[in-house]
Amino acid sequence: MGRIAVLDRQTIDQIAAGEVVERPASVVKELVENAMDAGASQITVEIREGGIGYIRITDNGSGMDKEDIPLAFLRHSTSKIRRIEDLAEVHSLGFRGEALSSIAAVAMVELITKTRECVLGSRCCLEGGVQKSLEEIGAPDGTTFIVRNLFYNTPVRKKFLRSEMTEAAAVHEMMTHLALSHPEISFKVVIHQQMKLQTPGNGSLKDVIYQIYGRETALRLLFVDRRFGPFSITGYVGKPEISRGNRNHENYFVNGRYVKSKMISKGIEDGYKTFLMQHRYPFTCLDLRIDGTMLDVNVHPTKMELRFSDQNLVYDALRQAVQDALSGKELIPEVTLGSAAEKPVLAEKKPDSEKKLPLEKVWKTPPPSKEPVRPKDKDLEYFMTEMRKRVEDRHKQKPSILQEENGYQAGQETGKTASQAEESPDTRGTAEPAAKAEQMELFDGKLLSKEAAVQHVIIGQLFGTYWLVQYAERLYIIDQHAAHEKVLYERLMKELKERSFQSQLLSPPVVLNLNMAEEQLFLKYRRYFADMGFEIENFGERAYAVRALPANLPGLGSAGALLELIDSLSEITGNISSDSMLDKVASMSCKAAVKGNHSMSSMEAKALIDELLTLENPYNCPHGRPTIISMTRHELEKKFKRIV
User: Fold this and answer.
1) Please, which of 37, 96, 435, 516 could form a disulfide with 92 given CB 3.0 to 4.6 Å?
2) Are residues 315 and 392 in the same domain?
3) Hey, which bits of 8-129 come out as E strands?
4) Is residue 299 part of a domain?
5) Are residues 361 and 224 in the same domain?
6) How far apart (Å, rounded) are the C-alpha atoms in residues 45 and 49?
7) What is the per-residue burial (b if ≥16 Cβ within 10 Å, else e) of 6-19?
8) Residue range 410-419, pLDDT digits in tens
9) Are residues 32 and 181 in the same domain?
10) Count of Cβ atoms closer than 10 Å to residue 400 Cβ
11) What is the pTM of this model?
12) Are 219 and 72 in a shared domain?
């Protein structure tokens, strides 16, 4: 064994840098968070060569005194805490005092800073953690960090960086999270000399969402504002129609800090259960506020992971808040008949988040032509579309285009809903008539309401599967199978809660012959079968006779369906509950639902629609498929050229 030696400071700093500085995005994150902690209201980030060659962070924060600059680059030097007890009450984004030391150890750093009280500012240059100069200089209030040649003295680390475009994409993604979590700060992000992100900093979260994800997403949001004891949730959740195929648009923040948490994701996704199809994930932007003593943010050097002292509280609160936001809204997808080939292709630059190409490929794409592609024989349609687009572009420059929280609060004061407040005269003026709300909340009455039921006009059945209903200025198309499946599911849910079961006797009984694994599963959940109205008795060695089952689930009255149900119970994880069991039964409820290509009478269809009126969420089947879609009269008349 070799002799034990104490490492020199430079080696210690480079080792420590490996925990904090993984890539250019790590440098940007640490420096921007420092700027935010310094009270900056405007922060500009500029990178070149993916941030490997050049990073510049400028802010208008409080700045630093000249005598504090050398101390700022020492390890574990910080202005955020003084003793161990302070860790429980840390509200700033950074506090361990490792960031500046770690960055300076692996790059060439230039710092220019000035406080408001000082006439002159200070300029400090470091290379590899060693201070080269410190001098007075004329400078604006605030701080500017310039980081050059990242990992120049650790070539092995530099070799493992990704391409410049990939590193730049990581910086852009990280900055979107900071912008969403702090709408009160104006952020600018310049990548390869192009402005990639700019937020107004007016405190409007919806304006930030508009700038990052575009108008179509911003118009399909539901406001959330709930408090559960010491825990509060505010922000927006997206309507089901803007769901995605991955979790990339699940944004959530804890006390203003972007984090990743399987438990938080599960709470959100369980709140969307029955509103989304399987393998679809919601758009969310939620800020969770909780007492600092109830969480530990110092789990990982990047502070991206955390622990809650009461995880059940957080999970239940998230699930309930999301469910409440979605419930009571008429979420009927609106269908348009236009095709991409018929619409003018405008060559305007869209936000990166709306493009289908990966961000790194978008930056390689040549700039678009200034002249739009003009479709043939579409002069009038093209002209109208172009005019509307220009009006929208003009409004887009205004930071308050969507009247975010102010509009919501005004709506509360006048007794309107959040969605009605969004549809202010200014907002309506920027939207096309046919695309007013693709997942509607009808301000003149809901389709599925008792008041509207007397005005329904049932036109007939299409393809033996879909029912056509006219109401007001819209055509509604109802999938009879999905609707009936939803009715059965909700009926069973209600009976489970109220313990008002009706069992249907089977004659003769259905005998199940189970193997050992199946029998263990059945015995584990046996009491839940009894809770739902099943009557099952022992019928010999690993054999069970099903003598009765829930009256509204006759589709489960076969050995095959019951064995499939028992097999599906193996997928249940976590705590056993009636709800877990019910989810599995709901997935089997198709067996009892009216199928497609089944002829129903108008009276049967009306009875089905009337029962939908009583449901809390009649717009999706238990698997998340829509039960109803709609089409406006305006859209139909456009296609028949009655209007242009």
Assistant:
1) 37
2) no
3) 42-48, 54-59, 108-114, 121-127
4) yes
5) no
6) 14
7) eeeeeeebbebbee
8) 333 333 333 3
9) yes
10) 15
11) 0.63
12) no
